[in-house]
Each structure stands twice: as C-alpha cells, then as structure tokens.
Amino acid sequence: MLIGCAGADTGLPPATHDPQFDWFSYEGRDAVHDETAAKANEYRNPILQGFYPDPSVTRVGSDFYLVNSTFAYYPGIPVHHSTDLVHWRLIGHVIDRPSQLSFDSIGVSRGVFAPTISHHKGTYYVLNTCVDCGGNFLVTASKPSGPWSDPIWLRDIDGIDPALFFDEDGRAYLLNNGPPVGTPLYEGHRAIWMQEFDLATNQPVGKRTVLVNGGVDLSTKPIWIEGPHIFRKDGWYYLSAAEGGTAEGHSQVILRSKDVWGPYVPYAGNPILTQRDLHSDRPHPVTSAGHAELVETPSGEWWATFLATRPYEGDYYNTGRETFLLPVTWKDGWPVILAPQTAIPMVHARPSLTPDTTGGFVPSGNYTSRDEFTDSTLAGTWMRLRTPRSTWHDLTSAPGWLTLRARSASIATLSQPIFLAQRQQHATATVQARMRYRPTSDGDKAGLVAFQNEKFYCAIISTRVDGRSVLRLEARTAADSAVRVLATRSLEASKADDLILRIDARGALYDFAFAYSANTKGDTVTWTTLIANVDGRALSTRSAGGFVGAVFGMYAYTATP
C-alpha cells in the first residue's frame, strides 16, 4: 500500500501531548456490493449505510427530507435531503447547539430516540424523545437545514416515538407509543395513543385515546407496537406502526379507519414488511426490518423508508441499524412493502423520479473516503460522544492538521471524552490515520478506536510506560470487565512521534496494525501487525446491547487533569 504526503515532509508541526492528525481514511468493501452490481436505472440498499436507524421521511413539493436517531452522539438527528429518494445529502442537524439538550453522563444508547419529521404551512416539525434527558419534545424550523428551535417539552405525555398528523381540515394530532391502560398483560405490552394537538401553543389538548392495544392481534401477545404514523388516502386513515421489537422479530403492520379516532381495523395480510419468516442460512441476509414510513411522490408512486440490519453471522452486526428503501404496492386498498417470505433486495429499480446528479451525496455501496482536514470546520459526518461543553478540536493552529486537546476524560466512562468518530458502514472495512504525538506522562494516550460503547471497544493507542513510548491494544469487551491490554510493542524512539495507525474489520474479526510514517510521496509503508483476529463480536449490539452501531474514531487522553 502506498501512503503519501504532498512533497517532502518539511514544516511539520511539532509532536506534542495533544495529538495531531494529518488525515483519516475509510475504505469499505463488502462482497455483496461486488456481487450485485447496480445498473443505471437501479439503486443500492441500504440507501444510508451504517448507524442510521429509525428513519422518518417527509415530502415537501419535489423535495424529500429524512431524519435518523443518534442517541447520545452529537450533533444529534442528522437531516438529509433528496429529490429522487436514492441520493441523500446531509444538510444539517436538528440538535447542533449544546444549549438545546444535555447528553451529559448518559449511556450511548440513551438520548434522542426515533425522531419524526413533518411539514405544515411553511413550518418543519421534528418530534422526539430524549430518553434520560428530558422526555418528549418538539422543535421547529422554517428551513429543514436549520436552525432548529430549542426544545418545546410536551406536557403529560409518557412513552416514546411521538409523531404529528395534519388532517385536511386543519386539525393536528399527536401519536406516540405508551403503556397500555391498566396493568400490562405481558412483557412488551404497549399501546399507540392519540391526542389532538394545538398548533398555537404547540401542546397536546383534550383526551388521550388508545388507537391500538398491544398490536394487530392482542391474543398473540405482540410486543412493542411503536413508531406510529397516520396518513390519509382515498377517504381512509391509515395507521402504520412497527411491531415485534427491533431485533429479528421486527415487522411493520398497517391498520385503517374511516374516522381519525378509529376504530382501526388491521390488514388481514399483516405484516406488510418483515424478514422473520425467512431461513437464517440464506446468503447475505438482511434482518430486523421495520420502523417504516410511507411517502408519496409527486407522480403518485408510494415508497417506504425503513430500518434493517446486515449481520455477518447469526444476529451479529457491527454496522448497526441502517436505512433501506422499497416501493409500496397497493392491493385492494392496502399498502404492502414486501410480500411474505421475500428477501429484501440489495438492488432495485429506481423510483420514477429524475436522478439527482448534483453530487455531494452520502456514499453507498463500496467506496473510499479521506478527510485531509484542510477545511476550517469539521465535516458534518464527524460525531462526538455526548454534549460538548468546550471546543477541544483545532483545525487552524496547524493548518492541514486536526489537533485534539487531550484531557483526563476516559472513553471507558460516561464522561465526554476527546473522541471524534465516524460510522462503520461495512462489515469489511479499513480505517487509517496519520498521527503525530508525543505522550509526556505515563498514562497519556492517543490513537484510533473501534467503539460500540464505554464497556465494549478496542483501541490502538500510542502511550508512555515507564518513560518509554509503546503501542498498545487496549480493549474492554464485557460489561463487567476492566480495560485489558491485549498487545504491546515498544516503538523506535526516533520514529515514535509519527505513526500511521490502521484498523481492519473483517466481519467478526478485527486486526490492528501500525507503520512509521512515510516522509515523501510514493514511499512504501511497511506495516507491522500489533495484533490480529481480535473478536469483534463485542462491538455488536448482540453482545453489547443498546441500539447504536460501531464507530471508528480518533481519541486523546491525558492522565494529568
């Protein structure tokens, strides 16, 4: 592999205890994308790869806008724009000011759950639940790119997954998942509630009513009816919701009524989307499909965005819950996303919309990206853990380099560590970064991390031990385990300040390697494996729990407060 810098390495910033990164690269190469080539009139699933769960989509004229959950990551709730439902461009975030919400000291899979986006008379609305940090709230904006308002907290609403429905008569209604009336009959027994919503005060008013108790058939003890949406078509009110939990039993169901308040009658062919009825040994499986939202195009086609996962074995996936797209077929007045026992296609014919060719899209399929840190601001795809209370990254003091200001906030805690991350978007992926760094005290460390949460991660870090520069693989792979050192190697003193670090993900296995940095363009880098075949299943929600996907990031820590 050739790693180069532009010309001779002159004028390098001095290596200090604040690590400086020259570049960060990502390469994804999943076999399924090579085996299923998309033709000119086709698109690839997923449309947003990696940790982009709980999609909600709305159309305004010829424009589509989509939001996703980000939990305790900041900035929160990305907003993507598309004109063809296939190419999506990041245009902003709903939560982009520390004053809006506090993610302080909460778990990675808490924070902002399942946002919904809608539009009414020139105003954009996002409803959401900040779990462990405030409850249900509403934010508004005149433009989907923002700025979004500070949260308006919704009174007297418990549960999760709030959404708005605007009826043709001008009235608005608030839906959400909540506990059933009385004592739940079984674990996972939930209900879909509705209440009228006053747009003048931005608060629910009047009586709350249960529209769905438990699910489409309470006698079967359905679990976690959630993510409700109502839309109107041909005189019917359709209520769409997820059912079965977000694991392999996930599905989407549909009910309808002639009156917005019900009663809602379920479709006899439910679920209208699931993968739980397929054999688990199929090639390149897609699982856990659900949490869909239907949207109509200007020409009258119907499509659905939804979440699903791509496990590399069993129920293990490190890429998290991703956003997929499929057409909706109407049968006898009912919408169907996918026929029973039908696998989600990785390639499908495009919507009948003019393809967007303007560029700047979130990439799909296999791709390579590289951030040279030449801009004055970070790209919008970089994420921090929890709410930043100070600015600790610097792109200006050493132009062309990203400096992280180290502090004593460990990635193994619920603090706000010095950690900038991007999503793992392929089961087979490679990340690399060039880092100049000189730890000044024993315990100082900096490097690259493959991270699921504070109890499940692997970090290749440069550190100092007894005054010597060493490279370590530190890992935490069980909820009750301490940080363990899986591998250590002494670094050559004259070269230790300038390293290229690499993480290779190969499904369940992760390799960690390093090289002393090339000094001139075209120099061949000699890689040294620090450790290979680390069990990466610890980075899956199957092992770690929660709802997020794995991320790769740059990390800095100092043992000196």
- The low-confidence runs, each spanning 5 or more residues with pLDDT under 50, are 1-9
Superfamily (CATH H level) name of the largest domain: Glycosyl hydrolase domain, family 43
Oligomer: single chain
Structural domain tally: 2
Cα-to-Cα separation, first versus last residue: 39 Å
Q: Describe the main β-sheet briefly.
A: 8 strands, antiparallel
CATH class of the largest domain: Mainly Beta
CATH fold-level assignment of the largest domain: Tachylectin-2, Chain A
Measured as a percent range, the helix fraction is under 10%
Write the layout of secondary structure elements.
Layout: E1 20-28, H1 31-35, E2 42-44, E3 56-60, E4 63-67, E5 73-74, E6 76-82, E7 89-95, E8 111-120, E9 123-131, E10 135-141, E11 152-153, E12 160-166, E13 172-178, E14 191-198, E15 203-213, E16 226-233, E17 236-243, E18 251-257, E19 265-266, E20 273-274, E21 287-296, E22 302-309, E23 322-327, E24 329-331, E25 334-336, E26 347-349, E27 367-371, E28 383-385, E29 393-394, E30 402-404, E31 418-423, E32 428-436, E33 445-453, E34 456-465, E35 468-477, E36 484-490, E37 498-506, E38 509-516, E39 528-535, H2 541-544, E40 551-557
Antiparallel strand pairs: 1-27, 1-30, 1-32, 2-26, 3-4, 4-6, 5-28, 6-7, 8-9, 9-10, 10-11, 12-13, 13-14, 14-15, 16-17, 17-18, 18-19, 18-20, 21-22, 22-23, 24-25, 28-31, 29-30, 31-40, 32-37, 33-34, 33-40, 34-35, 35-36, 37-38, 38-39
